[in-house]
Amino acid sequence: MLKRFSSAGLALVLMLALSGDADAQKVENPWSLEGYVGMVLPTGNWAQITQASAGVGAMVGYQLHQDWVVLANLNYASMKSSTDFANTINTDWDLFGAFAMVGYEIDAGDVSKVLIPVGLGVMSFDPKQKDQGDITLESTTAFALNGGLKFYYYFSPTLAFTVNAMGTVAFTDKVELSSDLVWNFPLGVGLVFRF
User: Fold this and answer.
1) CB-CB contact of 22 with 62 (8 Å)
2) Residue 27 above 90 pLDDT?
3) Could you report the per-residue pLDDT of 12-23, keeping only the tens digit for each?
4) C-alpha Rg value of the chain to the nearest Å
5) Which CA distances in Å does 104 have to 9, 65, 125, 175?
6) How far apart are CA 34 and CA 166, in angstroms?
């Protein structure tokens, strides 16, 4: 399944790259580098063993033409253990994510833009305290999808402030993660440098 999704994603990126090749020369400062900080909000069963926690991330992007952008996204969150007394798993988690994304960009004013990105990749779940008495937790890596909205406010052609609202779902069969669908909603602010 992972190979099928990866092949489809690669085909989409190549198709956009080929279709946008003629317009690529018209884009000024097509490369972008973004760093952001924020919060990661767990939902569903995953929220029973973790709570909202701090997260950071980085993106590298290339504007294929005026509307389409391809992105590589790396992110990390240190998820704190839930304070729910019914929680039988008591550990913090290190979450690492890596995604390839395609985004459609919309002008929202003279100095602002909105990007609608979707992507696929992997998420790694690493428990900090593996020994839980009756069970021993293990690190696991799962296929994941993400998407959302990114708002850009440009101070200059090469510098912008960003507000990010994303959603991520990881597909896993690990019982210790409380669900086969692990949902997170990262919210953040950052800076983008274009070159």
Assistant:
1) no
2) no
3) 555 555 554 444
4) 18
5) 15, 10, 30, 36
6) 15
